[in-house]
Design a protein that fits this description.
It contains eight helices and 15 strands. By secondary structure, the protein is an alpha/beta fold. Strands 2-1-4-5-6-7 form a six-stranded antiparallel β-sheet, with helices on one face. The chain binds adenosine-5'-triphosphate. The site of adenosine-5'-triphosphate has 18 residues, from helix 1.
């Protein structure tokens, strides 16, 4: 998959920008601090995920003093062209594919499939469970439209059940109707999340030794409120029966997949407790490149790889190993403030970014 052309209008510090990029090539975005390198990567990421990796506030991406932004791209996907456009105003996102409006996010997310590796990724191990669930959910949403609709059904049912539990006179029959449906969708979601995590870890386990000098074992466990086995639905019924009196007192659903977590492990200890920064970096690199492999196996093409400011964080050994492991067919965007003296052994293009303007340079 390749971004062939990217157009930004009133996006962060890009007033109007339209630029063509080369397929399967490494694009090296160089510039001093605060010039717009990450903004450009954010625009590509936004078209893939319909959200930013830096903020939950859509408004903050609109150029100061303007009312809306537009990000548009021509993307090559499995030898076919896709034309994608998103306009964001202060109220909402407007999606277009080949200039036709797209109503459902699930029909848009993942058409352009980009994966990101940035310094903030290390917080995956230490931040709240919500971020770890989001990591898995975003990737599954890009890979499967049915996952997106199953997840949004769950969120809708959870909201409805919570509303029913909030009433002073709780309609227990109605609460049970929502619960029966929630149990059905949760068993699907748990299975998909768990299978995805297992296959991702199989890839990551193979890749980790390339980024680590030591012999270490990495692992991950999907943590949910019931045992993951063929009897999941009856386990759920039991668990909800046990907690129902408490739910009535607290007026909300107290257990469910909206509280699940992933426990990442290094030599069977929680990563957040034992791993050094370097080990966390190696772990995330293995996860992201493992993800690229999974996407390749499922879709027949590599995603676009966005590496934001990561080379300054990696030691020489990890830099070399990363370069060696980057698939040759992958289009890659790398931001950095330093001109790197590296033999890439493949086609590389260099760009200077200054005050929201991009210009191709020789080196
Ligand atoms: N909504 C916005 N409107 C206008 N300018 C913005 C907006 N949001 C951010 N900026 C500007 O974008 C610039 C930051 O761009 P970006 O985050 O891409 O920096 P960078 O080149 O990656 O720098 P660094 O190397 O420090 O990470 C800053 O000058 C900031 O003021």
């Amino acid at each position: 998959m390749n971004v062939e052309k990217l157009t930004c209008f009133h996006f962060r510090n890009y007033e109007t920008m339209s630029f063509s990029f080369v397929p399967k090539c490494i694009h090296f975005l160089y510039g001093k601090n605060a010039q717009g390198k990450t903004n450009l990567i954010e625009a590509i990421y936004f078209l893939s995920h319909l959200r930013s990796f830096r903020t939950n506030q859509m408004d903050s991406m609109i150029m100061h003093g303007c009312n809306e932004f537009c990000v548009q791209a021509i993307v090559e996907s499995n030898h076919r062209k896709e034309e994608l456009k998103v306009i964001v105003d202060h109220q909402k996102k407007h999606l277009f594919r080949f200039q036709n409006p797209v109503k459902k996010y699930s029909d848009f997310i993942g058409i352009e499939n980009a994966i990101l590796f940035c310094p903030d990724d290390l917080s995956l191990f230490t931040s709240s469970p919500k971020n770890r669930r989001r990591f898995i959910d975003m990737e599954l949403m890009k890979l499967s439209r049915t996952y997106t609709s199953t997840l949004s059904s769950y969120q809708k049912l959870l909201k409805q059940r919570n509303q029913a539990l909030k009433q002073s006179n709780i309609d227990e029959c109605l609460v049970q109707i929502y619960l029966d449906q929630m149990i059905e969708v949760q068993s699907v979601i748990i299975k998909q999340r768990n299978e995805f995590l297992n296959s991702l870890m199989n890839k990551a386990r193979e890749l980790y030794p390339f980024f680590s000098n030591e012999k270490e074992e990495i692992g991950a466990k999907y943590m949910t409120f019931i045992p993951i086995d063929p009897d999941m639905k009856s386990h759920m019924k039991e668990a909800y029966d046990k907690v129902f009196e408490k739910e009535k007192r607290y007026h909300q659903t107290l257990i469910g997949i909206h509280r699940d977590d992933i426990l990442f492990e290094l030599n069977e200890n929680p990563v957040c407790e034992v791993a050094s920064q370097g080990q966390k970096r190696s772990f995330v690199l293995a996860l992201k490149l493992g993800l690229a492999q999974i996407i390749y196996e499922k879709s027949g093409q590599y995603p676009i790889l966005l590496l934001d400011d990561v080379f300054s964080e990696l030691d020489d050994f990890r830099k070399r190993q990363l370069i060696e492991k980057l698939p040759r067919d992958m289009q890659i965007f790398i931001t950095t403030t330093e001109r790197l003296n590296i033999n890439w052994n493949r086609e590389v293009r260099f760009y200077d970014i200054e005050k929201g303007r991009i210009k191709e340079v020789l080196k």
